[in-house]
Amino acid sequence: MADEFVKGLGIFTGAGLAWMVLAGWYRTPSFESQEQLVSPVSLSDSATMFDTLGVLLMDMFFWFAIIGALTFWVGIPVIRQAREALEERAQ
């Protein structure tokens, strides 16, 4: 059970760090404002393919952190307990 927790924690911290780096680049208009990391993305007309890819990766890292951690912290333990309960009931 501890290995699922560590896997979920690794996914959460790794993807969360990547999201925070990209959000710092694309969602922070200025460091004096109160809207750091949460302001809407504002790409200019001169946005390159890498800017678009960075915004796409930022959203992917966010959802990977949430869904990946919940999979290892909630999903897999629930499936294991349900499987054990079904095996007990079958005997």
Major beta-sheet overview? none
Percent helix, as a range, is over 70%
Apparent shape: elongated
By DSSP, the count of extended strands is: 0
Query: Roughly how many Å apart are the termini?
Result: 24 Å
> Structural class of the helix and strand makeup?
mainly alpha
Give me the Rg, rounded: 19 Å
Number of structural domains: 1
Strand content: under 5%
SSE pattern, N- to C-terminal:
HH
| SS element count, helices | 2
> Mean pLDDT, nearest integer?
89
Question: Uncertain runs with pLDDT below 50, 5 residues or more?
Answer: none
Transmembrane segments: 9-26, 60-79
Keywords: Membrane, Transmembrane, Transmembrane helix
Pfam families: DUF7314
Domain DUF7314: 1-89
Describe the protein.
This protein has helices at 2-26, 49-90. It has 91 residues and is an all-alpha fold. The protein has one domain. Helix 1 runs antiparallel to helix 2 (49-90). It is elongated and about 65 Å long. The two termini are 24 Å apart.
Summarize it.
This is DUF7314 domain-containing protein. By secondary structure, the protein is mainly alpha-helical.
